[in-house]
């Protein structure tokens, strides 16, 4: 081994990452070469100095790793990693729609009560629709044998009908009351208008008493036409209000109907 | 004993206790490494924390043929290096700022901040020899410094260091040689040992 060969191996020699025979050759060279020997000794001194810098004093500090919640593990298991949130949403909506269609085809009914909820699906639509609405309040004919689950429907049905009847009555009552209110308001306004015109006509009569009768008649006719037109306006306004009110009542009724279909609160 | 790689496998499957075990095994080692790179305890703790977090979050990118420790070393070294760069940048920025203001009196203080020197309260009674070694190490180029640290204080083989740093073994040895030669000069100049 010459100096150049030794310099190639000096680090391996120093840190003992060298084969046994190469080590022997290196030792042989060091015995013969003072300059290589000196360099090795200097490096050994440096290594000795480096060893003076001991490990830093142990100070306890805790590492916090941002572990995922168990829910995220479930999500990772449920949803493929490369899927975007958009894909997931699209799939969720699509499957919800599919379920809706399937449920409606199967004639599924879901009933909620404080005891839980009942679920039934008919493979074939029954001829007598079980759907109840305000117009048709007959209690649904439930045949317990056809139910896949023990259902509270049969016991709830009469109570439900009672409630529906009660709600219908209340809506009707409210509608009647509103109708009466509108009518009386109309009458009040028309009376006000009429008395206003009467006063005006009386004034005119006094004014025209001393003048030509013709003028008086013409002005009076004019006034009367105006009065009729005003009356017409009031009538139209009230009839449109009337229509709106009954439409609102109808909407309320539909809403109650809808709520009744999905939820049930005993009296 | 369960191998690190088996613990990694268990962590990837969702066993967080397995990763806790890896943290317990390597926390002190990684801290020592980062501390020798940065020289400040609280910064070293911060980078150490970041290293374990980064390793955990990137565990699925870990190639199974490598050693977990080598991979963890690499993450910690990369974070330390970027931390040093940030520190350098901040120091230069404040230097520029000072130049603009025309107050060069504090220049010494700024330079003091560049290197990973210990704060006074950190090491008030550090031994003299150790302090000199340390300040000599601080002045090495980080590329040489990390090789010396991994070799002298972590006992890695040249092959392992090459794996950690992702460079050829010959490069590792070149840096090691340069580092040792530089240390020899600095320590001699420092009067630690007269040649
Ligand atoms: Zn020689």
What would you say this structure looks like, in words?
Chain A is 67% helix and 4% strand. With 267 residues, chain A is mainly alpha-helical. Among the domains of chain A are: 3-49, no CATH class; 79-134, no CATH class. Chain A has a two-stranded antiparallel ribbon with strand order 1-2. In chain A, helix 6 runs antiparallel to helix 7 (213-262). The model of chain B is unreliable at 103-115 (pLDDT under 50). The longest helix of chain B is centred in the middle third of the chain and has 34 residues, at 68-101. By secondary structure, chain B is mainly α. The radius of gyration of chain B is 19 Å and the shape is globular. Chain B has helices at 4-12, 16-38, 41-57, 68-101, 107-114, 128-138, 142-152, 158-165, 169-189. The interface between A and B is medium-sized, with 27 and 43 residues. The complex binds zinc ion (ZN). Zinc ion binds next to helix 1 and helix 3 of chain A.
């Amino acid at each position: 081994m010459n100096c150049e060969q030794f310099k190639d191996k000096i680090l391996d020699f120093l840190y003992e990452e060298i084969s046994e025979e190469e080590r022997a050759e290196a030792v042989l060279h060091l015995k013969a070469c003072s300059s290589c020997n000196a360099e090795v000794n200097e490096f050994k001194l440096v290594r000795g100095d480096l060893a003076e810098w001991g490990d830093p004093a142990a100070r306890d500090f805790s590492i916090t790793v941002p572990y995922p919640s168990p829910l995220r593990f479930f999500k990772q298991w449920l949803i493929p990693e490369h899927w975007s949130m958009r894909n997931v949403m699209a799939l969720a909506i699509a499957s919800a729609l599919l379920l809706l269609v399937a449920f409606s085809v199967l004639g599924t009914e879901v009933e909620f009560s404080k005891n839980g909820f009942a679920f039934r699906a008919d493979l074939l639509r029954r001829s007598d629709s079980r759907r109840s609405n305000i117009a048709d309040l007959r209690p649904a004919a439930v045949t317990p044998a056809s139910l896949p689950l023990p259902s509270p429907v049969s016991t709830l049905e009469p109570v439900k009908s009672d409630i529906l009847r009660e709600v219908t009555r209340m809506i009707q009552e409210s509608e009647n009351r509103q109708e009466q209110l509108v009518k009386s308001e109309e009458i009040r306004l028309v009376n006000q208008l009429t008395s206003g015109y009467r006063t005006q006509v009386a004034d005119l009569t006094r004014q025209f008493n001393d003048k030509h009768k013709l003028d008086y008649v013409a002005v009076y006719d004019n006034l009367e036409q105006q009065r009729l037109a005003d009356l017409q306006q009031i009538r139209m306004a009230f009839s449109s209000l009337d229509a709106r009110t009954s439409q609102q009542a109808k909407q309320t009724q539909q809403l109650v109907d809808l709520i009744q279909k999905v939820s049930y609160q005993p009296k | 004993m369960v191998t690190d790689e088996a613990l990694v496998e268990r962590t990837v499957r969702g066993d967080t206790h397995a990763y806790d075990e890896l943290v317990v095994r390597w926390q002190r080692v990684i801290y020592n490494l980062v501390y020798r790179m940065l020289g400040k305890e609280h910064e070293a703790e911060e980078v150490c924390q970041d290293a374990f977090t980064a390793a955990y979050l990137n565990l699925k990118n870990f190639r199974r043929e490598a050693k977990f420790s080598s991979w963890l070393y690499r993450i910690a070294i990369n974070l330390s290096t970027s931390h040093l760069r940030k520190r350098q940048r901040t120091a230069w920025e404040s230097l520029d700022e000072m130049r603009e203001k025309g107050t060069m009196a504090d220049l010494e203080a700024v330079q003091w901040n560049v290197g990973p020197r210990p704060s006074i309260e950190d090491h008030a009674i550090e031994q003299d020899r150790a302090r000199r070694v340390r300040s000599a190490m601080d002045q090495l180029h980080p590329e040489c410094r990390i090789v010396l640290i991994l070799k002298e204080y972590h006992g890695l083989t040249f092959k392992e260091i090459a794996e950690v740093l992702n460079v050829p073994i010959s490069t590792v040895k070149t840096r090691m040689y340069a580092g040792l030669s530089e240390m020899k000069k600095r320590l001699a100049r420092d009067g630690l040992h007269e040649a």
